[in-house]
Each structure stands twice: as C-alpha cells, then as structure tokens.
Amino acid sequence: MLFYEPLFLFVFFPTFYLIYLLGERREALRRSVILCASVLFYTWSEPLFVPVVLASALADHLLARRIDRLPRACPQAKLLLAIGVLINVGILVHYKYTRFLIENLNGLLQGIPVGPIPVPAILLPIGVSFIVFEKITYLVDIYRGISLPAQRLATYLLYVFFFPKLLAGPIIKYHEMESQLRALPTARFDDISAGFLRFMMGVAKKTLIADTLATGADQIFAVDPAGIGFGHAWSGVLFFTFQIYFDFSGYSDMAIGIARMLGFRLRENFDMPYISCSITEFWRRWHISLTTWIREYLYIPLGGNRVPAARVYFNLWVCFLASGLWHGAAWNYVAWGAYNGLFLVLDRLFLLRLLDRMPRLVANLITFTIVVAGWTIFRAHSMDQAFAFLRAMMQPGLPSRSAGVLISADVTFAAVLAAIICALPRMPGFHRLRHFVFSAPGWTLAMQTALSLVFVLAVGKAVADPFKPFLYFRF
Asked: Residues 336-356, buried b or exposed e (16+ Cβ, 10 A)?
C-alpha cells in the first residue's frame, strides 16, 4: 500500500485518522488504533512476513527484559544480546542474501564435479532492512543502559510496526522514540496542519519529479551499454541522481508528515545533500538516519576515532562497505559502498583540506561529480554496465549508437526543475529569502495554496499513471 495511492488516501488513512482523533482523550484506545492500523498496513503488503516479525519481536521483548535485569556488560548479558542480534541478522541474511550467497558459491564451484546448489525462490519483504536495523537498536540500547525495556509487548510492537516509517524509514532508534511510545503525544492543530503540508510536499516530489525522471533513467539504462554515448550516459545518470533524491526524500517527507499529524516527531532524513562540499559532508546530509546508525552501532564499536589512524581509515571503509551491502545483495552495491568508503578515507587524508581551500561552488561541483559517479555504480544492472557508462561519461563527443532512446519534454523539464531546486540553497541570499517567505503571512498562505494545487495535480498523475514503488522498498 503506497502513501499516495487511492486506497490509502481515500479509504485507509481517513478511516484510521477519524477513529484516532475520536479517541483523543483515551490513550489506550489511540495506542490500540495505531498498532492495529500499522499491522494491517504491513499485512496488506507482506502478509507472510508479519508472523516472522511478530515472533522475532516477542524474542526481542523477552531478551531485552532479561538483559535489563543483569549487570551491564556481564557475560550473560553479552550472550543474550548476541543471541538477539544474531536472530535479527539471521532474518536479514535469509531473506536478502541467501540467493546472492548461493549464486556466488555456485560460481566458485564451477569446474568441480559437484552439482550446483539449488537457488531457493525467496521473495524480499518490503522494508526488511529498516525493520531489522531498528530491532537491533532496541536490544543494544537496553544493553547499553540508554533505554529501559518496553513495559508491554504492545508498546514495543508499536515501535516496530509504526506504519509511517515502517517501509523505508527514517531508521528510528528506540531511544529517539522511547518517550513518545511511553506517553503517546496528542496531535494539536498545528501538528495536523504542518504534517499535512509536509505530506503533500512528499507526494509532489515523488509523483511529479521522481516518477517522471524514472521514465528517462529506465529508458537509458535499458539500452545496450556498448552503444551508449556521452550525452545519453550523462543524461541517464543525472536523471537517476535526481530521481533517487526526490523519491527517497519524498517518502521521508510523507512519513514525517503522517507521524506529525499523529503528534509524533520523527528525525529528519535529508538536509539538502547536493550542496555538499565534500563526501564527508554529503553523508551528514544524505540518509541521515542510516549514517548515524552506522556510526553509533558499527563504527564506534569497531573503535571509532579512538584507534590508530590506519585503523580509523579501515573502520570507515568497512562501515561503508557494509552500507553498500545493506542496500542490496549485488556486487554493484558492494562496489558503491567501497567507493564511498574510499572517498571518506581520502577526505581524512588530504581531500577535505584541499576542498576547504577552494571556492564553495567549485568544491560543491567536484563533490557532486564524485556523487554522480557513485550513483552510476549504484544504478547499473551490473559492473560491466557501470564501467561502460563511466567510460562514456569521460569521453566528450562520443556518439550514441543506441536506437530508440527518445527523451520526452516532461522528463527534461522535471530534470531542470530538480536541478534548480537542489541548487537553490547554494545561491546567495537563499536563506534570507526563505526566512522572508515563511515569516510573511501573505507569502505563507500563497505558498500553502500553491502546494495544495500541486498536490491535487500530483494525486491526479498518480491515479492516471502506473504506480512506481519507492526505490528504497527494495532495500
């Protein structure tokens, strides 16, 4: 069930929200309504995976309560934590990486007189990586003493299944949401208004920009890479560069907006990433919830900055190698993670100091080019296709021999609009202009009216066109 499809917009959410608002003065009722709606929301998309999540959540709950009763860092607490983490990682490996591991093992066994291992048909549940990472944070937070265990299983299930962030984040750490889970917030009028405006903006970003750009990117990445030319290669990669940002940030806007309408506050997941002046800065602005999760639950346990420099560089590289693998069970995701890890290490060695001496616009353009090259690896169907695109992008004037590629005017317009929106924060006076627009009542009303009209157009487009799932559903 997508946030912008008619079933959600006109049936599921209005029904749920009416019941939720009617129970405003009864917290127990509101808690039950949110939990039931969240489980129903996920069951609609992944009915076979729901029992797995429920069973593993029960295991988390029991383990966490036992860990909390033990002295911190005692051997038994460590063992129980390891069991809980292994259960969750095992779920992720089974559903996401079994096929990848067996296919690569079969490749290694070629030439050996042993038949290939059958590859099981395991479907990837939507949002499994987000769910597993959040469940691990619960156990680790309890072990570290950052949070207390949920008093009731229903409270923990609400954290796991909370439907606004369930399918594609933001990845919410348990301690970030603990107080809101213990005493449910009440939605005030300004929460409802601000939340719905944020939701409308997310729908517009997804349907009008991301889905339009997807048409052009898919068309170019579907051609024979041997015939790709300079212009088509850059066009396809730039289409995807803006598509993935507006698609994923659009989902985050919708999730944050819906949660706000319920009175909840979720953390921001994006902060104008394409104006970054280094890869280090880019990863502070892009998918913030994943970056902070990696830092707190992987990088710091590996030693963080407290180890010798060579070990710090190795830890950085390993963390982003893991980030790449988190995104998907394919070698191009592994290569993309290693690529970003390499540039983070180069930032530490010399690149950050070099970029800091440059004009901000120049440093921004260099960083953007590095990011775009990385998205080429990320989007490609294979490493061979990625290398073919990268070679073509480095050969100005290389003609395209791919027939049938016709970029429509709406795709071009969406790309130009996306580039302008992403570049605006880099323009002089942008922050003063934004402050003026959002502080002047007349301008605020005009912006809200314009956004409402754009939202109606976006919903109309979503209904008329075939639905395109969010890109991060596959991760």
From this structure: bbbbbbbbbbbbbeebbeebe
H or E, element range at 132: helix 128-144
**Residue ranges of the chain with pLDDT lower than 50?**
none
H-helix or E-strand spanning residue 217? helix 211-221
Q: Are 205 and 213 in contact (CB under 8 A)?
A: no
- All residues at 6 or more sequence positions from 117 whose CB lies less than 8 Å from its CB, including other chains: 102, 105, 106, 109
CA atoms within a 13 Å half-sphere pointing along the CA-CB vector of 433: 7
Handedness of CA 160, 163, 169, 172 (dihedral sign): negative
Query: Who contacts 307 (Cβ-Cβ below 8 Å, separation ≥6)?
Result: 315
327 is annotated as an active-site residue: yes
DSSP secondary structure letter of residue 225: G
Kindly state the tokens that stand for 184: 């449910």
| Contact criterion met (CB below 8 Å) for 150 and 159 | yes
**Please, what is the angle between helix 360-379 and helix 230-261, to 10°?**
90
- For the chain, give the number of residues: 475
Phi, psi torsion values for 357, nearest 5 degrees = -85, -10
CB 44, CB 161: distance < 8 Å: no
Please state, in angstroms and as integers, the Cα–Cα distance from residue 342 to each residue in 227, 280, 303, 309, 313, following that order. Answer: 30, 11, 18, 15, 9
What average pLDDT does the structure give for the chain? Answer: 90
Q: How far apart are CA 201 and CA 196, in angstroms?
A: 9
What confidence score (pLDDT) does residue 46 get? 87
Q: What is the pLDDT of residue 270?
A: 95
What is the rounded CA–CA span in Å between residue 418 and residue 235? Answer: 13
Identify the H or E element spanning 161: helix 153-161
Query: Which residue bears the tokens 């917290």?
Result: 27
Q: What local confidence, expressed as pLDDT, does residue 50 receive?
A: 93
What span, in angstroms and rounded, lies between the C-alpha atoms of 402 and 232? 9
Whole-angstrom CA distances from 412 to 187, 236, 280, 323, 407 are 40, 11, 30, 32, 7
Q: Which residues contact 225 (CB under 8 A, 6 or more apart)?
A: 384, 385, 388, 389
253 touches 204 (CB < 8 A): no
| Catalytic residue from among 287, 327, 381, 435 | 327
Q: What is the rounded distance in angstroms from the CA atom of residue 165 to the CA atom of residue 289?
A: 11
Closest CA to 289 of 205, 112, 165: 165
Tokens representing 146 are 């950052």
Question: How far is Cα 53 from Cα 330, in angstroms, rounded to an integer?
Answer: 25
Which of 171, 169, 164 shows the shortest CA–CA distance to 137? 171
pLDDT for the residue 470: 81
Question: What pLDDT, on a 0 to 100 scale, did the predictor assign at position 225?
Answer: 85
Full-model pTM: 0.93
Among candidate residues 229, 217, 168, the one with its CA nearest the CA of residue 471: 168
